[in-house]
Design goal:
Oligomer: homotetramer
CATH topology of the domain at 6-66 and 91-171 in chain A: Rossmann fold
Largest interface: A-B, 108 and 108 residues
Distance between the termini of chain A: 64 Å
Number of helices of chain A: 14
CATH architecture of the domain at 6-66 and 91-171 in chain A: 3-Layer(aba) Sandwich
Chain lengths: 407, 407, 407, 407
């Protein structure tokens, strides 16, 4: 067991991390600093203060990180049209590096030599927290109680809480969700419970943020999103900060039944796992960003981004946000967005995000060339013959030597 | 102008290719063989016979290629979860290599030295037809009338038809769609007309195959798709041929408002162009295929497929189906599907394709390892510490030497 | 500590693995099966039998794996022109999966429930052995003494040997190389000692297999290599088995001062490490294989192979030979070699491998098209204008809208 | 034929471009501006002035572009360890975009509406010149005489010269090399002649820049190269400009028999072609750059660079230097070089470039961790067990479900 003087704990104020807080004090006999962040999870963060104080914590950090989260993490990720395994918008993954960064900043401010978190030893989050922490403070000690202690069932945890007089919100504990959940401004996730059978349909009352498509309004909602350098800066012409944008898109999207997802994904630690996600704003943003890029981005730039995207997505999913390779890719992605400016019009209706228009002063769409009508010489159709002939040459030579693609 | 003895024409029976037929006879003073294919476009192909006969064609080919189309082209493509530029399911692109192949087969059978088609000099289809033809018969001559003649407006075309007594279905010509369209069993596409302004919303009455989400039924439809080696072999337990599968999925999907798309895409010949597509069955298949792969495919195999997919999609879009590099990629893709067997359950509702379950005898999902409950030792959480430590090592060394990801 | 009944040990007969043998017997109180392989390392393997018998081993496997090694591991790898980090020919990496496979085969034959090896906890070899073993026998137990015991210095090891009466070849032990070495038919490697300072030049007397370029003959040696499906099947017209080919190329290459390498590489476990390698035959094979591919392989197939090669090399380096993604890539690579037939002529001189000719019945080199002389119409230079114009179109449109690559 | 007022001609002063000059004046009846560049080809550029004047040219540009060439083109390319098709160092390719840029700059300065060059219709250079020109000035007209005129043999060219009194250096013309050659500070190339048979050995007296390995000194030369941000800034401690560096490395390399290459490559226009190249300085730079990166670059950054390199090399080879995708890749490449500082020591001997040492204040090589000796706890060998276990997990699960890599 490591010798620890002071540890910064990512503290939600809930039962699990309260037990961890106590367990750290007792087991490591060290001082604990708590850090509680508002990332838009939709729960009050202030109550964590009193709980921490009650357990004798002297240094308590409670931060509203919503703007930083969207501006420096969510938006950069969406510039790459990032999706993990064709479906997942990385709602949990993208919040972890910010928490890791704050844990280390606080450790540096308070002179702590360790950090601790409540992620289990089976999941991706432990990796994301710890890779981030090590990249930012290589000598930091990491305490991951779920990998160390023996409180591996809920009963043991409750017993521990009772025995150590940790205040448990029993009302809440009693009606605990059967799911393991995580939420921030980008999404809310559900794992465990009946989802552990991949054939069982998810339950309608599991979802918390979105209306079902069935329950969504019968008339569509139209919105216009204004982009500057690949980021949304206004909705329906009204300028907004990044967190305002995402909050509003979550509201509109959720209202229209948008952004539910039920998948089986591959964890970095090696097993498959089923997750359900609600990402209303993100689902809208992905579609809209592709639409604005479709008229402003060069073809080969767009294709290169598409080819690198799965790699970039895996880096984020696996916890490598603070790695040099993610930073290098980001420079390329950001550079590609210089001309990604303009407006996208969307129709939202019962789960559907339908692009109905896109325009830009930086549009590369040239109606004069693309037209099916006569173009007055803007494009010389005869050029196509030579283009095809030379592109075919290597295949013609091969076929001439007897190689056939039909064999 | 090339010296041509006999040319095989891809002949639809419509006005454009009828004019081409006549123009070839007059301009090249050569014999014309017509080839008309049923690819599931939803129009009768037999009427083309009488029209061709009326213009003196002696060798007339009319083929039902629907099964071959889905079995050898559509299904192999879907094994790769293929999407061009994040959105387009390649409905037009994937039909062209089959037509090219048949043109060359017929040329070989009839002793023709040339082929001809009705694609314009601005589009991708000319490239797809001709690259395929050259790869299969390197010495073939290609006549692309739209790149050669001066009948570049509809009026000139009508005049030519009238002057040469080409039978025009004036009723049909009169109510001609304002869109340039293409259809086969995978999709129907629309280009031109009001779509040439990227900001103008597409018109509701443009769509021909699908109900709108608004008009779709208010109650969802559930279906179960059975996969063998990555291909659908049964719907709701009933065995079907490839073309039957796609026909039925088009029916169910269209009924439920699924598969509409409005995008701006990058053509191989260099310009951006707007297209609207209805791909009801394909939209269902993409989602379902990812779902069955999610439980049966190894993580790294899935990721490698995802990284190569954009390249594979571009090859198909650009007309390189018969190239050696597409064939090489296909071998890898097909090899990956050996264990992609099982059943996917979907809920279809007003444009939404919602995965609600997936099961397989070849599933790699291990509930015992993935569970949030105690797993009886199936997974040793302590392993994660070493896993993270070594993955972090290079970043820790770098940070220890003063490199910070925050600079 | 795992409960082990019988363990198969990769046993060289040297001091280290002899100590391991004894330590396994004592520590795990289990039966030990020894496995000693001739992979072309140039040392007798039979002496291992008597040593094992002296320590009471009843089941002793001594295998000549040279042909299998080259045929099923080295040759398939060279089909991809595989190089790790631009320099390293993977001589150690490629032998490990074969050893892992034999360990598991022997475990299955002898009813052993564990395997053991002498690789340290800092290197790549432990990963390669164990990933292979787990992929082939998922429930196998692995004992890696260097990660478990406390005999971490040479003195402690010698003490242990003395105390347990393990026969040590003191003559040999006394003049022990200052380097950590590994050899097989593909290469011999050196690590440690003075090489741990990256600025210190390697010592001339370290090298064991090759003459120095200075000491190599003053007249060049010419050889002709015959390829079939990407593999060498004859040298100077004389048919040879795979192991014969590599043995002979090692001889010729070594004689001519070919194949020395001094690099700093990145280990999978996270640190940089310096290695020196002698790979005379492999260095020749890499150059020659590229030469035969240069006239027989399609351009895009060659480029796709080049783009995937670094990934493939990392898979082998990191120990993923038996992974599904390596197997999938291999199918593509092997498929690409169908026409890689012909002859390459090389000039070998004082460290240089110079290609002086290549010919093939499957050559795609068309002198008639490539010629600088008049080609009689084989290639129409006017086609190039259209080819360039359409390839430039997207950039012209962008420039026309004011985007400049000079900004 | 285009209507041209004034054309800028890339003019070498030799026979071919002198004929082109005259032919442009006569055929297009337009004013010609000549542009002659010193790119380090080793021939006087000033004589071009008198020749151009003699043919009535009023605007004559003669530029020494050597520093710009190495600083802005060669060095950036070497930051990526760029090689085309595993062998070619892109000596010709990398000079073309600079010439294209100057042609357009001069066109803008002189009010010319066209450019012209002496590249043939079969090669890559026409593509490189013209893609560059179009990207920089989209409306420019391009005249490529070799694609237009009928002077396709040397005899016709000589006749034309005689008839139009174009001064021919008959002494030089008489002893004309049998090869088509191109030279600049990075390399000299040879094509055509006996090289058109891929089996014929290149002739020793073809080579112009380098000694043969046989003729090179019998004692090695040691040099030390100092890097800053991935570029060489000093040789043996003496600061030099980019062009000085390359000039000096060419001298030393050529003296030591370094940098000859004989390959068959795939041209962008579709055929295979044999080329011989001398790149003495570049061959040294490639090796040395990898060596300095080996101690200063993060592993994953290095691997990502390696994976993207073939794409980047093709972009340069194919003429896309001024494309947005090359520029985007360059930003990533340049960003990766921030810490590529230090010194590499090389031993040059009869064609061999041998790395004997590398050191850097930014080295990530940590002898304390890499050592085979006891490391005092810098690295915990036990971590490796968990690392391997989790990396093996997916394969163990698959094997447990009956999937075997041996089937």
């Amino acid at each position: 067991m490591a010798d620890v003087k002071k540890v910064v704990l990512a503290y939600s104020g809930g039962l699990d991390t309260s037990v961890i807080l106590k367990w750290l004090q007792d087991t490591y006999n060290c001082e604990v600093v708590t850090f509680t962040a508002d990332l838009g999870q939709g729960e009050e963060v202030e109550p964590a203060r009193a709980k921490a104080q009650a357990m004798g914590v002297k240094e308590i950090y409670i931060d509203d990180l919503r703007e930083e989260f969207v501006r420096d993490f969510v938006f950069p990720m969406f510039r790459a049209n990032t999706i993990y395994e064709g479906e997942y918008l990385l709602g949990t993954s993208i919040a972890r590096p910010l928490i890791a960064k704050r844990l280390i900043e606080i450790a540096n401010e308070t002179g702590a030599d360790a950090i601790s978190h409540g992620a289990t030893g089976k999941g991706n989050d432990q990796v994301r927290f710890e890779l981030g922490a090590y990249a930012l403070k290589p000598g930091v000690k990491v305490i991951a109680p779920w990998r160390e202690w023996d409180l591996l069932s809920r009963e043991k945890l409750m017993d521990y809480a009772a025995k150590h007089k940790i205040p448990v919100d029993f009302a809440k504990a009693g009606k605990k969700s059967p799911y393991s959940m995580d939420a921030n401004l980008l999404h809310i996730s559900y794992e465990g419970g009946v989802l552990e059978d991949t054939w069982t349909e998810h339950e309608e009352d599991m979802w918390r943020w979105t209306k079902s498509p069935e329950a969504a309004p019968n008339t569509p909602t139209y919105i216009e999103l204004t982009y500057r350098n690949g980021d949304i800066v206004a909705i329906d012409g009204q300028a907004m900060t990044p967190a305002q944008v995402l909050t509003e898109l979550n509201r509109i999207g959720g209202e229209n039944g948008i952004g539910r997802l039920d998948i089986v994904e591959n964890r970095y630690v090696g097993m498959k796992s089923r997750g359900c996600y609600e990402t209303p704003g993100g689902t809208i943003m992905l579609r809209a960003h592709r639409a604005i890029e479709s008229i402003t981005l060069d073809r080969e730039v767009a294709h290169l981004k598409d080819e690198l995207m799965p790699k970039y997505a895996s880096l984020i999913y696996n916890g490598y946000w603070w790695s040099p390779e993610r930073l290098m890719l980001q420079q390329m992605i950001d550079a590609s967005q210089a001309n990604v400016n303009g407006v996208v019009r969307l129709k939202l209706y019962k789960g559907n995000v339908i692009v109905t228009g896109r325009k830009s002063d930086d549009s590369l769409f040239d109606a004069n060339i693309a037209t099916f009508e006569e173009d007055g010489g803007a494009y010389n159709q005869a050029d196509a013959a030579g283009f095809i002939k030379l592109n075919a040459l290597r295949m013609r030579i091969a076929a001439g030597k007897g190689r056939s693609p039909l064999n």
